[in-house]
Amino acid sequence: IYLNNSSQADIIESNTITEAGSDGIYLYTNSIVNEIRKNTIQDVEERYSIYLSNNSYAERITENEISGSSSVNISLNTASAGYIDRNTISGGTDGIRILNSDSSYECNIESVSNNTILNVTNNGISLMEVTTADMITDNHIENSGGNGIYLRGTAANAVSGNVILQPGNDGINIYAKSSVGDCLNNEIDGAGRYGI
Fold first, then answer.
1. pLDDT tens-digit map of 151-193
2. Closest alpha carbon to 179 in 155, 157, 196, 159
3. What average pLDDT does this structure show over 60-83?
4. What is the reported pLDDT for 13?
């Protein structure tokens, strides 16, 4: 499913996508969707299961089931979203990765919450150069090869209530001029390096 060049859709819902050669769902160049929800995406062969880039926006990415990806499961690059919540992700390199690669773009995320992320080879949730991220809360991340939650150059109001089990590196890594208002009530067990 591909939206390009200022395309718009209200809801992308209840689709089953298997063995896509490239992205499962892709919003590119100023494209806007209200909700991406309840999709099943399996075994994407290259790139990303859900991908937003180049000033695209989704108000909510929710209740998607993603498994068997060869790369990042939910990826935003120089794009924004309101809520990324209640997604179930298994396998792939990264669970949810939000990267702002354009310093002139204001990347804002309201909430990354209540996601279940299992058995990724890199980070469970990573936000890099994100202008503001209000809440990263109540996520369950288990067996990530890298960090459970990784912030780089990002301002977050709250990182709280997350359960992070057996991360290969740190449970929560706050790095490179990141700032966090409240970091509390997180449960971290079996970190390969630091808890926080």
1. 999 999 999 999 999 999 999 999 999 999 999 999 999 999 9
2. 155
3. 97
4. 98
pTM above 0.90, yes or no: yes
* Residue 156 backbone phi and psi in degrees, to 5: -125, 135
Distance from C-alpha of 162 to C-alpha of 169, rounded to nearest angstrom: 16
Q: Give the C-alpha separation, 58 to 94, whole Å.
A: 19
The answer to whether the CB of 73 falls within 8 A of the CB of 47 is: no
Smallest Cα–Cα separation from 84: which of 94, 92, 93, 74? 74
**DSSP string for residues in 68-104:** --SSEEEEEES-EEEEEES-EEESSSEEEEEE---TT
* Composition of the chain by helix, strand, coil, percent to 5: 0, 55, 45
Backbone angles phi, psi at 126, to 5 degrees: -135, 135
- Dihedral over alpha carbons 29, 127, 64, 5 (to 10 degrees): 0
- Place 135 in a pLDDT band, splitting at 50, 70 and 90: very high
